[in-house]
Amino acid sequence: MPTIKFVTHDGNEQEVEAESGTTVMQAAMDNGIDAILAECGGACSCATCHCYVDEAWTDRMPEADEIEKDMLDCVLEPQDNSRLSCQITVTDDLDGIVIRLPESQY
Question: Global pTM?
């Protein structure tokens, strides 16, 4: 099972296991990662699952589609590596991915 390391804005780390085929958002929810609010439940309509893909992993990510890009325009603290965790599907190729979490979700 692939692992995901979540790193909060203040440096706390939590490593979790996730089923391939699920999303990074669902893995966060299943493991009590409080910084991922996921108010829309993964429908790509609220941006409360905003995260930063660690720079070492950005080249392995598919490009965000237009809907995700539009939602990312709504987040505070956007960065070039901003993504919505509901749009990142966990695969064996992402084993060990590091996901950094913003200070606040809106």
Answer: 0.94
